[in-house]
């Protein structure tokens, strides 16, 4: 559930890096995602037309983002364009601090989030793995927080699992791990740490076999979600035999 | 007059309306001089010399 609406899966897919509508279709069919993200770009820059038509045909929920925006002002305008073009109040809010690190500018992020919440948006902000910032975002009315595992496209996984767990503990809205996941076990870890969902883009779209990785991610998220609810054993300093000592053969 | 459409300078006839520039509103959105113009207002929005028009749609993106 997110902002009162059920989503079919805890795996979200970013379409960046998929070059054709056909590759989008095959990845979405394999991943069965709860939603997919799209960016907003000038029409003349459209490399592959028909993305929207493909996604609508697949019946998957579309979440526009403000990828590439470098200020609160740019992000707010992009969100408003997305609402108009796609007829959705939901936006994945990204305000990037610089084009090299691709890390969020959290000062502008909180400001843009507050503006968009005021204007009726359901705001899902991409943020640093910092529980204090996460709380600030929730304070201004964000419907979820989306902390990064490691920098966008780095595939370095969840660099600081404790920070993700701390965010989970700090806020009551859904937490969606965003950025850094490189393979299915890392998506599983996100869910085990208490995240409600994981967003994966590069790890799938630039894998050698994107369809196979999309399938792996679907299972990874499912495994992590089940494990999170299963109550894992505590870590112990000393080993403990799993077989009973009683009744064993003696010679 | 001239417009700057998606960053490119374009010569158009005076008094051009947004609907003339973007006939089909499906899946696209328009901003003029940094403000969104809703599709319902396109038919009575006349563009002016040097207006900056952005026309955007969904594209692949993380």
Describe the structure concisely for a colleague.
The complex is a heterodimer of chains A (251) and B (62). Chain A has 251 residues and is an alpha/beta fold. Chain A is 40% helix and 14% strand.
Task: Explain what this protein looks like in three dimensions.
The complex is a heterodimer of chains A (251) and B (62). Chain A is built from nine helices and eight strands. With 251 residues, chain A is α/β, with parallel strands linked by helices. Chain A has one domain: TIM Barrel (Alpha-Beta Barrel). Chain A has a five-stranded parallel sheet. A three-stranded parallel sheet of chain A has the order 4-5-6. In chain A, helix 1 packs parallel to helix 9 (210-230). Chain A is globular. With 62 residues, chain B is mainly β. Chain B has one helix and five strands. Chain B has one helix at 18-21; strands spanning 2-5, 8-11, 28-32, 35-37, 52-60. In chain B, strand 1 (2-5) and strand 2 (8-11) form a beta hairpin. Chain B is globular, with a radius of gyration of 12 Å. The chains are: A alpha/beta (251), B mainly beta (62).
List the SSEs and their pairings.
The complex is a heterodimer of chains A (251) and B (62).
Chain A: E1 11-14, H1 21-31, E2 35-42, H2 51-58, E3 62-64, H3 72-86, E4 90-93, H4 106-118, E5 122-127, H5 131-139, E6 146-147, H6 161-170, E7 176-178, H7 184-192, E8 197-200, H8 202-205, H9 210-230
Parallel strand pairs in A: 1-2, 1-8, 2-3, 4-5, 5-6, 7-8
Helix pairs in contact in A: 1-2, 1-9, 3-4, 5-6, 7-9
Chain B: E1 2-5, E2 8-11, H1 18-21, E3 28-32, E4 35-37, E5 52-60
Parallel strand pairs in B: 1-5
Antiparallel strand pairs in B: 1-2, 3-4, 3-5
